[in-house]
Design goal:
Layout (H helix, E strand, L loop, with lengths): L1 H28 L2 E4 L3 E4 L2 E13 L2 E2 L9 H7 L7 E11 L7 E3 L2 E6 L6 E5 L3 E3 L5 E10 L8 H14 L7 E6 L2 E3 L2 E3 L8 E5 L5 E4 L1
Antiparallel strand pairs: 1-2, 2-3, 3-4, 3-5, 5-10, 6-9, 6-12, 7-8, 7-11, 11-14, 12-13, 14-15
Length: 213
């Protein structure tokens, strides 16, 4: 008799838990908190580092000691070809705050907008394990055409390429947007777009990461 009375209550509690479980996971992943020089937390996803590696301008790699002062000459000599690709790798660290349970993210979409360049975007299609205290170091390929926009925009584009090659960091005013994929953790899955909207960051004058709303 007692068991018969308890079963409906247990069933009701189970249904409530199934409804609340995604909200619990979302609650752990939500919030807005910034830590100076250590990372930016947006929805509890921490972008702990952001830099530029392996810059190539046309066939020349920075590792081959390209003299970036000659980029303008290289660009002018390439006008007849109509294009001069700049390729680089965006190095990014992702992590979670201390004490957070590990979360598996099924990739993400990203968009990078740098001053003077059309936005570039891509999909990181590999699963990413996010663990507190141990950052996931990711590499995103970035490419744009130095000659895109014609002669009137050539000088600013050359200046941007020079900065990427010489400083190894994104210029101030750059903006990065990350749209997380499905999130798996605590025995449940939070589908992409459900309470985990796009994370937007901008780069400050000192290279700091600034949250955008």
């Amino acid at each position: 008799m007692i068991l018969t009375r308890l079963l409906p209550k247990l069933s009701q509690r189970h249904r409530r838990w199934r409804l609340l479980a995604p909200l619990c996971l979302a609650g752990l992943l939500t919030g807005c908190l910034a830590l100076p020089q250590t990372g930016l937390f947006a929805f509890r996803l921490a972008v702990t580092s952001l830099g530029v590696e392996e810059v190539r301008i046309g066939p020349y790699a920075v590792d081959a000691r390209l003299d970036t002062s000659d980029i303008m000459s290289l660009a002018l000599s390439s006008l007849g070809a109509g294009s001069l690709p700049v390729q680089a790798t965006l190095a990014m660290g992702l992590g979670l705050p201390t004490g957070m349970p590990a979360v598996e993210m099924s990739g993400f979409r990203w968009t990078l907008d740098m001053p003077g360049v059309e936005p570039v975007s891509g999909n990181y299609e590999q699963d990413v394990t996010l663990t507190s205290g141990e950052d996931a170091n990711l590499r995103l390929p970035v490419a744009f055409d130095l000659l895109d926009g014609g002669r009137e925009r050539l000088a600013p584009m050359v200046e941007l390429a020079s900065q990427l090659a010489s400083q190894g960091e994104l210029p101030a005013g750059s903006e990065l947007a990350i749209t997380p994929g499905d999130l798996r953790g605590l025995g449940m899955t939070l589908p992409a777009g459900l309470l985990t909207p796009t994370i937007r960051l901008s780069v400050g004058e000192d290279g700091s990461l600034i949250p955008r709303r």
